[in-house]
Amino acid sequence: MHFYVGYVYVGHPAKHMSVVFDTSSGQVMLPSENCADPVCLDRRRYSAKLSSTAVDINANGTLVDPDARLAGDEKRRDAIQIGVSSMNMVDGGITGELMYDRVCISSGTGRAPTCSSMGIAAAKKMTEVPFAGFPHDGIIGLGLENLHINELFASMIGSPKDPLGFHIGLACSSAIRQVRSPLVGTTTIV
Questions:
Q1: Which spans in 53-176 are helix H?
Q2: Do residues 10 and 46 touch, judged by C-beta distance below 8 A?
Q3: How many Cα atoms sit within 13 Å of 34 on the Cβ side?
Q4: Residue-range domain boundaries for the chain
Q5: What is the distance between the terminal CA atoms of the chain, rounded to a whole angstrom?
Q6: What residues contact 169, with CB distance under 8 A and at least 6 apart?
């Protein structure tokens, strides 16, 4: 089995994480600091509390708490369950919370990373199978439009009108695009 594994930087200050680029899913899935499962404890975990750019959101992109960047445990919020199924591996999945934060892909040695703010599924629970066998911290879903929750969760590929291109191989190249979001307006990514 082959994995296309790369590195991303999530939040601010940037948290370095290894991810698999998956063409059969549509979400960015990262283990959360709130996950106590053994499979999570063996990985670098995303911390919304440590990121000044993290925002708690619901599946439709609305803020969980309009008065605070991060909602407390007492706030009602959308949760997410994502199943992972593969012909080569046993089925499993994650359960987590929805966040909106900055994700950057390294563009190679000596070049600035390409960044985008997007929806993230922060896993509070991850099944041992198949995740214990994965050589990475999380997943960047590159799948088609119908595989993600909505445009905020469109991963790094964006939409046909806002494409982000890159090459998976020894070197990574990227392009500039604009992201349109009801939360942050229009942002140019460099």
A1: 128-131
A2: yes
A3: 14
A4: 5-189
A5: 34
A6: none
As a CATH number, domain 5-189 is 2.40.70.10
Q: Which two three-digit tokens encode residue 33?
A: 């600091």
How does pLDDT run across 135-189, given as a tens digit for each residue? 889 988 876 666 666 666 665 544 444 444 454 544 433 333 333 334 433 333 3
State pTM to two decimals.
0.77
Alpha helical stretches, state H, the chain? 38-41, 128-131
The β-bridge relationship of strands 28-31 and 114-126 is parallel
Q: Which residue type, as a one-letter code, is found at position 128? A: E
Q: Convert the pLDDT of each residue in 38-94 to its tens digit.
A: 999 999 999 999 999 999 999 888 999 999 999 887 789 998 888 877 655 568 889
